[in-house]
Every structure is written in structure tokens, then in C-alpha cells.
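JOB MANIFEST
job_type = single_chain_structure
chain_count = 1
residues = 53
[input]
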Amino acid sequence: MKKYICDVCGYIYDPAEGDPDNGVAAGTAFEDIQEDWLCPLCGVGKDQFSVQE
């Protein structure tokens, strides 16, 4: 699965790890995260993330 990086702060969402502190289980693809999820570091929405190359 692809990793996604926050364009604002550089946080990397890794689907293998998820974001368990914010209710996203390990193994959850970025596309499957609820739309109101926010970057755990800076608080921007999913629309501020890009696929990590």
C-alpha cells in the first residue's frame, strides 16, 4: 500500500501502522480513512496529503 505525506508538516501516513491513537487501525488504506480524519501532527485534512514517491 502507498504511503501518504502531509504537504504541510511532513507527517507520513503508513497504512501498515495506521493511526491507532486516532481510531485508524493498522492495515487501513489511506483511501479508506474516514473523511473527517485530520493529520495527527498539524490538524489539516486528507486533502492536504500527497502520495509519497
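[summary]
The first strand starts at residue 4 and ends at 6.
The mean pLDDT is 97.
exit_status = 0
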